[in-house]
Design a protein that fits this description.
With 484 residues, the protein is α+β, with helices and mostly antiparallel strands. 43% of the residues lie in helices and 24% in strands.
Length: 484
Amino acid sequence: MYATAAVLNDFEWFFHERTTADFGIDAFVELSTSKRPDGRFLALQIKGGNSGLKRGKNGLVFYFPDNHRDYWLRLRMPMLMIAHDQKNNVLYWEKVTAATIHKTGKQWKIELPYRNTLAINAKRTIELFVDEHFGPYQSYVSDETEVHYGKVLQVSMLTGFLRGTLRVKEPALQVSYEMRSRDGKNELCIVLIAGKKQVITKLGYYDAVCHVDDRWWWDHDYYFTLFSLEKYLYHRYAILNTKNALDILKAAIEEMVQQGGMDEIARRMFDRENKLLQVPASRRFLLAFEHATGLDRSGYQVCVTGHAMRFSVGEFYGEMISWQGRIAELEMLIAGKQYDVFFVQTDPAIWNSIYRGNRVNGQEFVAAIRVQWVLYWDRLYTEMLRETGSATHLDDLKNRSWYLLKHFCDTCHKKYNAVLLAAELDDLVLFPLAVMALVELIGTTECFRQYCEAELNGKGSVWEMLPEPGRKRSQLFIRELEQV
């Protein structure tokens, strides 16, 4: 596992080991563009030692049963099989597709060719394999656009999306970043373009962005804060009814920079996005951390990550979240029907304890899951028909999913741990559908309250409540994270 993570980190990709029980998937890796994660994911099955492996003439051969083959081929993301030859300290890899999997009597096999060593020279080949699934990473800047004075670091991924969600305004706004190098320092700038007009605003000097191994490029203020800043700029641009819109946006950015640089931008964007969700203001996070550690603002680093904040000081690296922020994250999972990440971002054991604690009627639970299952496949077929014009390739996947659902329904009444059973059978589809059925039966507010109570305050929780000065009961919690 660690050898694989080390190589993929050399690729400047982001390795995420699964910490919950898996069914043939050990980890995920997110690819990057300009050292920033770009939303292209790759599933990994990692074998070490002699676990199920045989040494063949042309490569290492791994044998596996029907259920693993079915599970892997219906994943909605590309997948690699990786084997670690510990004796020679070599990693081998192969794509997991219908073409690389072969029948052998009662089992299946996949051969990892000796020529496929997991090293830096394999990066481009693997990236092309991922792009076959997701399509190549797109930057939304036209060929006619020129960004002067420096190298473009990142062109907004939001441009195409927001044009479909906001009132279209012409000329369209484009946002990118560039890095200027002056006197040995690196100055980060934001570039706004609308039609033939362009304005450039300085955001400050940040040496960290030039450090290849520095996690802060994607995990510090830059990634989440600049992403939020882009959303803010697109929104304001869409509602501004003036020819001087770029000048107004430039002035707004400059005012924030003058007030406190990227820290001030981070604070305002965090508060702006979280105010309606009743997430505590950023200042409360900082005061609670300073109260607990005795440090002032110059003694630690902080970054915002959606509804949470991450702190770094010395050997400590931790995440702080609020009760309301965690509720907001759960709401986004349910409302966005983000099936693929339910098992990564939530704990099946907690959902199962909610199922048991509320004495959910088994028949009602099964009926609700059946409805969710029908809605899931109807939605998936509709999306595929709209995107490709054909959805017949989903038929086999749907049939396999139906057999899993039937097995679950036949077994559920015998199991008190129904949600855990769903996660064991199918954590990519059946488990999230079980959670959505549970939320429907218990009610969103009560279900999320119970989840947060168990996760943040429950026995064995990795979270610790952080006292807030002047408040009887804090709504902030902190946990230590593993250093990347």
